[in-house]
């Protein structure tokens, strides 16, 4: 009887793996076709289904290199960092270090002095679901000042001044994408753990998941891609600074699949935290939001996803918990339209 069960288990594994291979062949065909139409855009795509992982990549690290992009080539994942930060927040909830509906007041450093109108108003969940009503960074002005490193002029002092000068939450409770919100979440994590954000994410995500090619402050590695703006001009990787928890982690297709593998396993700490981030915290006619996670639902599927755009790269991470698959797409050019078109084609023609 035991032998029969082992045989059936092995047969099921082979069947699932073969099915996953067939699915990924179709995904690879879509990516290859896109590369042929856009040969100047490097791309790395990872797919996971039933714990089996598949990766395909096209293009060179840069125009001067013969080294091809592969599963370990480094990209800016940009705002996908937010889904990592929200997972860390959820882990802190699991550890009883904070509650998701706590007001932020007691978690902020002494540099922040909230106006009376803001006290005991903003919850941690409001920051994580982009409905805090707080003012945000003016990226347009920052790009004019420094188009290569626009966030370089953002400091703890400028953030505190911005928050302290806010006297009213004009659109509290309404969705408005916020870099400030996730910067504050990073600082809240630092307060409850007593460590810098890079050490926290290292200890709770990067090290335990063995994401050996995911970097925070130091990312000067040989297998790093080169970013390009929409016109094809070379764009520097963003340097680490106070806004890191909102979008400055660098990673690879292989490492992001390790994260997705943990997310899809409800028995892991990361998986339990991810389930918490999937709860709907904001909903209107246009969108549903969890904690840092966009939620797309139709009659057949519920997808959880997050996009990322730096000045020179675009990315997206998406998963379907019910059907146990996930995908990550990394581009070495800021090209949100191409990224979204690829995901749409893959989900609508292959994964449905």
UniProtKB/TrEMBL annotation:
All residue ranges annotated as the Beta-lactamase-related domain in the record: 28-337
Q: What InterPro entries does the annotation carry?
A: AmpC-like, Beta-lactam-related, Beta-lactam/transpept-like
- According to the record, the signal peptide region is 1-20
Q: Does the keyword Phosphoprotein apply?
A: no
Q: Which terms does the record give in the GO molecular function aspect?
A: hydrolase activity
Superkingdom is Bacteria
- Keywords carried by this UniProt record: Hydrolase, Signal
Name the record gives this protein = Class A beta-lactamase-related serine hydrolase
List the source organism.
Pedobacter chitinilyticus
Q: What is the lineage of its organism?
A: Bacteria, Pseudomonadati, Bacteroidota, Sphingobacteriia, Sphingobacteriales
């Amino acid at each position: 009887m035991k032998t029969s069960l082992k045989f059936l288990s092995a047969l099921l594994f082979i069947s699932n793996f073969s099915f996953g291979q067939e699915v990924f062949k179709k995904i690879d065909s879509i990516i290859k076709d896109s590369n042929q139409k856009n040969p100047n855009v490097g791309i790395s795509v990872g797919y996971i289904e039933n714990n089996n992982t598949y990766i395909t990549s096209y293009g060179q690290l840069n125009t001067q290199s013969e080294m091809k992009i592969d599963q370990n080539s480094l990209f800016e994942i940009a705002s996908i960092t937010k889904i990592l930060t929200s997972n860390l927040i959820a882990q802190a909830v699991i550890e009883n270090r904070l509650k998701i509906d706590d007001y932020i007041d007691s978690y902020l450093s002494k540099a922040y002095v909230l106006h009376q109108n803001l006290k005991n108003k903003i919850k941690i969940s409001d920051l994580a679901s982009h409905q805090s009503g707080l003012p945000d960074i003016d990226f347009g002005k920052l790009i004019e000042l420094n188009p290569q490193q626009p966030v370089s002029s953002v400091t703890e002092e400028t953030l505190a001044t911005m928050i302290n000068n806010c006297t009213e939450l004009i659109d509290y409770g309404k969705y408005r994408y916020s870099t400030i919100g996730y910067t504050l979440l990073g600082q809240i994590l630092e307060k409850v753990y007593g460590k810098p954000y890079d050490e926290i994410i290292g200890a709770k995500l990067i090290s335990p998941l063995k994401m050996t090619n995911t970097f925070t402050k130091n990312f000067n590695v040989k297998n790093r891609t080169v970013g390009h703006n929409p016109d094809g001009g070379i764009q520097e990787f963003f340097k680490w600074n106070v806004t890191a928890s909102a979008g400055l982690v660098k990673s690879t297709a292989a490492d992001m699949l390790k994260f997705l593998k943990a997310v899809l396993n409800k028995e892991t700490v990361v998986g339990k935290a991810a389930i918490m981030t999937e709860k709907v915290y904001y909903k209107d006619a246009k969108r549903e939001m969890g904690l840092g996670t966009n939620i797309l639902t139709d009659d057949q599927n519920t997808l959880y996803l997050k996009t990322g755009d730096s000045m020179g790269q675009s990315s997206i991470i998406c998963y379907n918990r019910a059907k146990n698959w996930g995908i990550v797409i990394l581009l070495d050019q800021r090209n949100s339209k191409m990224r979204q078109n690829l995901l749409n084609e893959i989900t609508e023609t292959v994964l449905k």
